[in-house]
Automatic annotation (TrEMBL):
UniProt lineage: Bacteria, Bacillati, Actinomycetota, Actinomycetes, Pseudonocardiales
Keywords: Oxidoreductase
Organism of derivation: Actinomycetospora endophytica
Record's protein name: NAD-dependent succinate-semialdehyde dehydrogenase
A UniProt-annotated Pfam family: Aldedh
Record InterPro entries: Ald_DH/histidinol_DH (IPR016161), Ald_DH_C (IPR016163), Ald_DH_CS_GLU (IPR029510), Ald_DH_N (IPR016162), Aldehyde_DH_dom (IPR015590), Aldehyde_DH_Superfamily (IPR050740)
Residues in Aldehyde dehydrogenase domain copies: 29-484
Record: active site: 261
PANTHER family: SUCCINATE-SEMIALDEHYDE DEHYDROGENASE, MITOCHONDRIAL
Gene3D superfamilies per UniProt: Aldehyde Dehydrogenase, Chain A, domain 1, Aldehyde Dehydrogenase, Chain A, domain 2
């Protein structure tokens, strides 16, 4: 069993106030809101609940710090990130416990996220000193073109609850490296991990005002005025497509540059020539990473009829034998979903598919007792009219469909408004390239069930978003290009 005293101490150690201009301060009227443990439904602690005035104070601090920060040596910016990277790794056991307590996923999953999240700081610590420009002679030989890349200015970063640390470091890392100041608003369900990260960055030497943290339950009321304020020069959002659309509309007023990492509906295609065992292994990762609460989660499995029963049976064996429980307990592989609404939505999607004719091969029932648990579930014979064909499940449910022609699989895979990631299993190299080119997605997992990598450009097409995070291009989202024309 987990050690309750250690859990309490780890939660107690996190600053719970707003971080504005380098100072931890209460919200207006010392308002707070509760953070819950989804495995028990109990309250872990209270954190500051910012008002619109607090949000504006955070922007004031970011705007004040911008000029000095932009002028800080790139090496210094990089070294702060590098120190923070090392501190995150040193404290990974405690951060993992914190993340599991507020978000629910098993400790092993939290540790994997921390490794992934910290890597963005290491990657961008190296990118900070490699911001380049251009110099060229005019085509007519008379003049010169000088191109420089400069920090875009104060940024507003809004992050979701499903990867509480990585969705923050993927934005904070390049913003620091580029020389931008920022206001970050973590999800109200999981504010503690970002508050802990902010504390680490302060201890790593980040100057006051560069990172300001606003936790709030009045999200729209606090974020709206910031988006409308001309001093914010960039909005980077990760979350649902629905909220993303609203934020794009709001950003239009200031013609604000936006990055949008939005929802997914990933197809997972298994061709007749695939290594079925490898495909099942990949499916477990693509489906069960983060208990299915990932934008990259495989949402629809399209399996060739020749291997469909073998694949489904092996997947059922693996999914049906997973250990469910509190994420902090030893040996647990499946924790609770993040909140009751999320669990109810998953149950509703499964019930809808079953009513329309899908067969439950494992799982499919909400267990009794405390916490927001839902068991790993495999559905076969799923009709295409089921809601989960179009909607993001965001839970541990794998619907399996069959196909006989590649063309049929590609058409079904692309028949969605989303386009974040597609997974493809085949041993035939030509088929792999042909289908990868035709899949409408920002990323393809080719014979692998995970695409997340700090060194690669992460992002989607269609309604899965705008822009890329990570890789060589990740820092570009935080830089503005300026061209100087000169005569010589
Ligand atoms: P969400 O409901 O869209 O919330 C995301 C963030 O936006 C939260 O911080 C939320 O604050 C904030 N927000 C909500 N309404 C807002 C408003 N009117 N103005 C400004 N901010 C607002 O998404 P979620 O449920 O946290 O996350 C799950 C979604 O994120 C899924 O669709 C998933 O696919 C997507 N996601 C995408 C990626 C990617 O890289 N493409 C990665 C991870 C997750 P509150 O917490 O206060 O509501």
């Amino acid at each position: 069993m987990a050690d309750a005293a250690r859990e309490r101490r780890i939660v107690e150690d996190v600053p719970k106030k707003l971080l504005i201009g380098g100072r931890e301060r209460d919200a207006t009227d010392t308002r707070t809101f509760p953070v819950e443990d989804p495995s028990t439904g109990e309250i872990l602690c209270e954190v500051a609940d910012a008002s619109p005035e607090d949000g504006m104070a955070a922007l004031d601090a970011a705007a004040r710090a911008q000029a000095d920060w932009a002028a800080t040596a790139p090496r210094e910016r990089g070294e702060i990130l590098r120190r923070a990277f090392e501190m995150i790794i040193e404290q990974s056991d405690e951060i993992a416990m914190l993340m599991t307590l507020e978000m629910g996923k098993p400790l092993a999953e939290s540790k994997a996220e921390i490794t992934y999240a910290a890597e963005f700081f290491r990657w961008f610590s190296e990118e900070a000193v490699r911001i380049t420009g251009e110099w060229r002679t005019n085509a007519n030989g008379n003049g010169r073109v000088l191109v420089m890349r400069q920090p875009i200015g104060p940024c507003l970063l809004i992050t979701p609850w499903n990867f509480p640390l990585a969705m923050g470091t993927r934005k904070i890392g390049p913003a620091i490296a580029a020389g931008c100041t920022m206001v970050i608003k973590p999800a109200a369900l999981t504010p503690l991990t970002i508050l802990k990260l902010a504390d680490i960055l302060t201890k790593a030497g980040l100057p006051e005002g560069v990172l300001n943290v606003v936790t709030t339950k009045s999200t729209g009321r606090v974020m709206g005025p910031l988006i409308a304020d001309g001093r914010i020069r960039k909005l980077s959002f990760t979350g649902s497509t629905e909220v993303g659309r609203t934020l794009i509309e709001q950003s239009a007023q200031q013609v604000l540059k936006t990055s949008m990492e939005l929802g997914g509906n990933a197809p997972f295609i298994v061709c007749a020539d695939a290594d079925v065992d490898a495909a099942v292994e990949g499916a477990m990762l693509a489906k069960m990473r983060n208990i299915g609460e990932a934008c990259t989660a495989a949402n629809r499995f399209y399996v060739h009829a020749d291997v469909a029963e073998e694949f489904t049976k092996k997947l059922v064996d693996r999914m049906g034998s997973m250990t469910i429980g509190r994420g902090v307990d030893e040996g647990v592989e499946v924790g609770p979903l993040v909140e009751a609404d999320q669990r109810d939505k998953v149950a509703e999607l499964v019930d809808d598919a079953v009513q329309k004719g899908a067969k439950v091969r494992t799982g499919g029932q909400v267990p009794s007792g405390a916490g927001y648990f839902y068991p790993p579930t495999v559905l076969a014979d799923v009709p295409t009219s089921a809601r989960l064909v179009k909607e993001e499940i965001f839970g541990p449910v794998a619907p399996v469909f069959t196909f006989t022609e590649d063309e049929q699989a590609v058409r079904a895979a692309n028949d969605t408004e989303f386009g974040l990631v597609s997974y493809l299993y085949t041993k035939d190299l030509q088929r792999a390239i042909r289908l990868s080119e035709r899949l409408e997605a920002g990323m393809v997992g080719l014979n692998q069930g995970m695409v997340s990598n700090a060194g690669a450009p992460f992002g989607g097409v269609k309604q899965s978003g705008l822009g890329r995070e990570g890789g060589d291009v990740g820092i570009d989202e935080y830089l503005e290009i300026k061209y100087v024309a000169l005569t010589v």
